Amino acid sequence: MRAIIQRTEQAKILVETDGEFRLTGEMMQGLLVLLGVEKSDTEEDVDYLIRKIKDMRIFNDSEGKMNLSLIDINGSIGIVSQFTLHANTKKGNRPSFIRAADPVEAEILYKQFINKMELLIKGKIISGVFGAMMKIDFINDGPVTIIIDSKQREL
Questions:
Q1: Which positions are annotated as active-site residues?
Q2: Is residue 154 part of a domain?
Q3: Residue 52: which of 35, 69, 77 has the closest Cα?
Q4: Distance CA 69, CA 56 (A)
Q5: Does any domain span residue 97?
Q6: CA 35, 37, 43, 49 torsion: positive or negative?
Q7: What pLDDT, in 10s, does the model give residues 52-102?
Q8: Is 47 exposed, middle or buried (0-12, 13-18, 19+ CB in 10 A)?
């Protein structure tokens, strides 16, 4: 499972329905998480990423140092499924998505991720609609952008 985490001042998620984009959620300070599910991912990968993301100290303290977590600032989180995070671009010019999980399995893990995050943070949680065309409007704060892959855990 792979996540791109972006520290945000604000974010909005719009989902296409009947040819029009409609707002499904908006948030203020927090994190926008783009989440890609891989074929071999399990609930263990969900738990690992949640633990890393909620506790990652990437918000500034009173001295301007990145020393506070999402929990510390009572921040919000936006979660969007994005299978393209598992694109393989080694051959040719058209990306291959063969490593991305089957949509049925990916949606199960995506929803587990959201449900478990809801139990652990007090801030607002917004999300997209799995498999839908979406537009994400956000202000990257810093900019701070971090990539975490549950298959590349550091000890």
A1: 84
A2: no
A3: 69
A4: 5
A5: yes
A6: negative
A7: 999 999 999 999 999 999 999 999 999 999 998 888 888 888 888 988 999
A8: middle
CA–CA gap between residue 109 and residue 49 (Å, rounded): 12
CA distances from 121 to 11, 104, 154 (A): 17, 26, 24
CATH of the domain at 28: 3.50.80.10
pTM summary value: 0.92
Report the alpha-carbon distance of residue 136 to residue 146 in Å, rounded.
17
H or E segment to which residue 124 belongs: none
Number of structural domains in the chain:
1
Report the C-alpha gap between 8 and 133 in whole angstroms: 21
- 155 assigned to some structural domain: no
Q: Helix 43-55 crosses helix 103-120 at what angle (to 10 degrees)? A: 40
- Contact predicate 124/76, CB 8 Å: yes
Residue 104's domain comprises 2-149
Measured between alpha carbons, how far is 123 from 143 in angstroms, rounded to an integer? 21
- The neighbour count for residue 153, using CB atoms within 10 Å, is 10
